[in-house]
Design goal:
Layout lengths: L1 H17 L6 H10 L7 H16 L3 H11 L24 E4 L9 H16 L3 E6 L9 H14 L7 E3 L4 H13 L3 E4 L3 H10 L10 H12 L9 E4 L14 E5 L12 E3 L1 H11 L4 E5 L3 H13 L6 E5 L2 E3 L6 H9 L14 H7 L3 H11 L6 E3 L1 H12 L5 E2 L1 E3 L1 E7 L6 E5 L7 E5 L3 E4 H7 L3 E4 L4 E4 L4 E6 L7 E2 L5 E7 L5 E7 L10 E4 L3 E8 L5 E7 L1
Parallel strand pairs: 1-2, 2-3, 8-9, 10-11, 12-24, 14-20, 18-21, 22-26
Antiparallel strand pairs: 4-5, 5-6, 6-7, 13-23, 14-17, 15-16, 18-19, 19-20, 22-23, 24-25, 25-26
Helix pairs in contact: 1-2, 1-3, 1-4, 5-14, 10-11, 14-15
Bound molecules: zinc ion (ZN).
C-alpha cells in the first residue's frame, strides 16, 4: 500500500488546488483507477483517501500548492499502464501486420480498435503495417468508401501504412491460384441453381457436379472466365467436406459471376470470395502477424485448408474477443438502411459509432489508442460503450479544452447597485495563463439557475455575488469570492445551437468570444458538457456537437 499513499496525497492536493482548496474523495479515487487501481482494492484504500481529504482540506491553498510542488511527479504518470503485451514469434524489425477493410461501408469504432492494435504492434516491433482494400464485391465496394476509409485511417487515426494495395489488382494471380486448386482436383465447377446449392449444403449432401474430373473442370472454368455463364449459372467451389460440422467447410463457393461493373477493373466479372483471397493476399504481402477478433473463428479451418493446398506459409494469428459496441447500430447493412431512409442524418449521425461520428463529436484519436491498449488481446467478448470512450476522452481533453459559458433559456437580470465594472479578464482554463476579456453590459443567466436560487445569494462565476429576487431582479452584495454556489452568466452574446447525442438540437446563448473559435475546436461549457464547434452557420449561430459530460 506504500506506493499508493503518495499518490493519494498527490491527487488530493491536485484536486484541491483545482477546486479552490477543497478536494473530493470520489475525484481522487477516479484518478487512482486511471493509474491502475483495481476495483477490489476500494475497501482497503477508501479509508486512506478519506483521511487524506480531511487533512488536505484543512490546509490553505498556499500550503497545498507548496506541498504539491514536491509531489506533482506522482500524478498522471503512465508507468502503471501495462501497455501491449508481447506477441508470439515477433522479432524486432521483422513484424508485418495489415489492415484489410472492405470498402463497402464507413469504418466504426470496432474497426478502429483492430487497426490500432495491428498498427501499434507493428510499431512496437519496429516492423511494417500495410493497408489492403478488399474490393472484390463490385455490388458493394466503391471509390467513395475507399476515399472515406483512407481519410479515417490516415487523417483521424493517424495510421501511416507503408503501402496500399487493392485485391482487385491481383485478379490474374488469383485466377492462377484457382486453376492450381482445380488441377489438384480440389475445386470444381458447380452448375446447381443457387437454392439447390444452399439446400444440399444444409443437408450435407454432395451434388453431382462434384464428380467431374480436373480436365472438365478446367475447361468449364475457362468458359466461366470468358463470361459464358451468367449470374447464378455457375460457381467455382472448393472440394471440402460436405459432412463437416463446420458449415464453412461444406464446399464453400470460391468464385462467382457478378454482372455489375467494378469501379476500377471493368473487364472482370468473375470475383473471388473472402476465404479465398484473404489468405492468399496475406501471403503476397508477407504478413507475419494477424490480430483479429474471434468472429473469424469458423473461417480459420477453411483458410488453413486453402493455405495448405496452395503451399502458403502460415502467419501467426492472434484472435481476441469480438468487440461488442453497446448502444449503437454497427451492422453495415442496418446502418445503410437508416442513412438511406433519411432517419439518420448520414454516416456521421451522432447515434452511430462510425469514426466520422466520433470525430465530429470531439473524440480525440488518443482516446481510441488508449481504449485499444486497455482492451489489448483479451479473449472474451468485449463490451464497449460510448461511456467508456467518453471517460478516457474526458481525461485527455479536460486539461486542454478552454472553458466558456453557455446559457440555456436565458433571462436578463436587473441588478440593483451594479458596481462600476466595465470589463473583466478571466482565465480561459484554470491551469492556463491565457485570459479572455469580457465586456460587462447586461447579465443573462439560465432560467433554471434562477428558479433554483430565488431568495439566495449566489456568485456570478468570476464576477461578483448577488442575491436573486422575484421578477428577474437581483441585488449586488459583494465582490469577494465567497464559498457559495456559483452560476454561469453571459453578457455580450452569440446564439448557440448544440447537436445532442440523440440528434436533437438545443439552443441558447454563449459569450461572444466563442465567435473567434476555429471550427473543430473542442471546448468545455462550464457546468454543462464538452462540445466541439462544428461550424458557424450562415445565420451567425455557433453550431456545436455535444461530446460528453
Ligand atoms: Zn452442383
Amino acid at each position: 500500500m506504500a506506493n499508493w499513499s503518495e499518490k493519494i496525497r498527490a491527487y488530493a492536493l491536485k484536486n484541491a488546488i483545482e477546486h479552490e482548496g477543497k478536494c473530493q474523495a470520489s475525484a481522487i479515487l477516479n484518478s487512482l483507477f486511471h493509474e491502475g487501481l483495481e476495483k477490489e482494492k476500494i475497501k482497503e484504500i477508501m479509508p486512506l483517501i478519506n483521511e487524506e481529504v480531511k487533512l488536505i482540506n484543512k490546509l490553505s491553498l498556499e500550503e497545498q500548492k507548496n506541498l504539491f510542488a514536491g509531489l506533482e511527479k506522482e500524478t498522471d504518470k503512465r508507468s502503471t499502464r501495462t501497455g501491449l503485451r508481447e506477441l508470439e514469434n515477433a522479432k524486432k524489425g521483422k513484424v508485418i501486420t495489415r489492415l484489410a477493410p472492405e470498402p463497402s461501408k464507413y469504418l466504426h469504432l470496432g474497426h478502429a480498435l483492430t487497426y490500432i492494435l495491428n498498427y501499434s504492434y507493428a510499431k512496437k516491433y519496429k516492423g511494417k503495417c500495410k493497408l489492403r482494400f478488399e474490393d472484390c464485391n463490385p455490388e458493394k465496394v466503391s471509390q467513395e468508401f475507399i476515399k472515406e476509409n483512407l481519410d479515417d485511417i490516415k487523417n483521424y487515426l493517424g495510421i501511416k501504412p507503408v503501402s496500399i494495395r487493392y485485391v482487385s489488382d491481383d485478379m490474374k494471380k488469383l485466377y492462377k491460384y484457382a486453376e492450381k486448386l482445380i488441377k489438384l482436383g480440389k475445386a470444381y465447377m458447380c452448375f446447381c441453381p443457387q437454392e439447390k446449392l444452399k439446400e444440399l449444403r444444409e443437408k450435407g449432401i454432395e451434388c453431382s457436379c462434384r464428380e467431374y474430373d480436373a480436365k472438365k473442370n478446367l475447361s468449364e472454368w475457362k468458359k466461366f472466365l470468358k463470361n459464358e455463364y451468367k449470374k447464378n449459372e455457375a460457381v467455382l467451389r472448393i472440394k471440402g467436406n460436405m459432412q463437416s460440422t463446420n458449415y464453412v467447410m461444406r464446399d464453400s463457393v470460391l468464385f462467382r459471376h457478378i454482372e455489375k461493373e467494378h469501379f476500377k477493373h471493368k473487364k472482370y466479372k468473375i470475383w473471388p470470395m473472402f476465404d479465398f483471397y484473404n489468405p492468399i493476399e496475406d501471403h503476397f504481402m508477407q504478413v507475419t502477424h494477424i490480430l483479429r477478433s474471434n468472429e473469424f473463428d469458423v473461417r480459420v479451418e477453411l483458410q488453413d485448408y486453402i493455405k495448405e493446398l496452395l503451399d502458403l506459409k502460415k502467419e501467426t494469428i492472434l484472435q481476441y474477443g469480438r468487440f461488442n459496441i453497446s448502444g449503437a447500430v454497427t451492422q453495415g447493412r442496418e446502418v445503410r438502411k437508416l442513412v438511406e431512409s433519411g432517419e439518420y442524418i448520414g454516416w456521421d449521425d451522432p447515434r452511430l459509432a462510425t469514426l466520422k461520428s466520433l470525430k465530429r463529436r470531439g473524440i480525440v484519436k488518443e482516446a481510441l489508442y488508449e481504449l485499444a491498449e486497455s482492451i489489448g488481446l483479451k479473449k472474451n467478448q468485449i463490451e464497449i460503450s460510448f461511456d467508456m470512450l467518453a471517460s478516457i476522452n474526458r481525461k485527455l481533453i479536460d486539461k486542454k479544452a478552454d472553458r466558456y459559458s453557455f446559457i440555456q433559456t436565458p433571462i436578463k437580470l436587473k441588478i440593483k447597485n451594479f458596481p462600476d465594472i466595465k470589463e473583466i479578464e478571466v482565465k480561459i482554463h484554470p491551469e492556463k495563463q491565457e485570459k479572455r476579456k469580457i465586456t460587462i453590459k447586461d447579465v443573462y443567466i439560465a432560467s433554471n439557475d434562477y428558479e433554483k436560487n430565488i431568495g439566495k445569494e449566489i456568485r456570478l462565476m468570476h464576477l461578483f455575488n448577488i442575491k436573486l429576487k422575484k421578477n428577474n431582479e437581483a441585488d449586488f452584495t459583494s465582490i469577494e469570492n465567497k464559498d457559495i454556489d456559483k452560476i454561469n452568466w453571459v453578457s455580450e452574446i452569440v446564439p448557440i445551437k448544440i447537436f445532442m447525442p440523440d440528434a436533437s438540437w438545443i439552443s441558447g446563448i454563449g459569450e461572444i468570444a466563442l465567435k473567434n473559435l476555429k471550427p473543430g475546436s473542442i471546448i468545455q461549457f462550464e457546468r454543462f458538457a464538452f462540445c466541439r464547434l462544428d461550424k458557424i452557420n450562415s445565420a451567425g449561430e455557433c453550431e456545436f456537437w455535444f461530446s460528453h459530460k
